[in-house]
What we know:
The protein is an all-alpha fold.
Amino acid sequence: MRTLLACLLVCAVVAAEPVTQVSDDVAKQALADFKSAYKEAGSIEAKQGVIFNLHDVPHPLVLKQCIKLMRHKDSKIRNVAALAIGGQGYDPKKAGEALMKALPKEKKNVEVATSIVDALIEVKYLGYWPDIKKETAKDARNPVVIRIFDLLGANKDYRSIPMLLKMYRVAMPKHVKWQTGTVNVDTGAAGNADNEAAQAKFNQKYGAGGSKAKAKAVGKANSFDLRNFSSQIKKCTKEITGVEFDNDIDLEDWLVENYMMVARKAAEMDGLEGKKLQKALRKAEKELPQLKKDVEEARKKLEAELAENGNK
């Protein structure tokens, strides 16, 4: 059922046009039909089909019904209710806020989280960023974040570039990051040599014993690989920038070169215009020299560390 509904949703997105609210009479009739069919539906799958019909009836009363269904105890019902909200693009703010309110609660329901993200993309709601930024800061490893990458990529959300750069530093090759410290190693060798060298250096610096701190750090580092963060982050960043970056160094260079463009697009996505937009751009222009300095210093430090490791 999820696959069928996803296909229907994709078709709706591809043929996206401004959503016009239906009349009160049409909405009331659709809701009456919905309630009757929903009551008669004998299975969850049948109920899902009835709910999805609300997708094509954009109206405040329909949105209210869909929001109510988002609180249903059965995740299959919530899943389709989210997709139905995707059709309520007549009011992106109300629909988007309802979806964002539900998203954090679905950390253990990846299917529902995926439907919420699909709906956010369809209603063209961009006000998600403050909450998304906060959510990823709390726990960038939960399954919902992987769905969020789809949202950021689909919207070419330049506001997320600094966040993605931080994730690159954690998840990409040449940077093995542990909770109790950081070790950078590049032996120049093929295979697992870099990982083995990093592990050896980590053991030397923090101890090879079975401490709880080390176990927690290793578990955190491994979780990125288990959830395939590297490929997801790379895909998302490419969708936004049009460039595929293999490591944080290249992304950092790109950001320095394109900082003002990123600042402008991010400000515009936040709805800034006129004097407010110009103020944001002046602020970015003042930030750029320090960013260049920080990048240059980090580069020199990394080169020194790699040179030192190469001589051992």
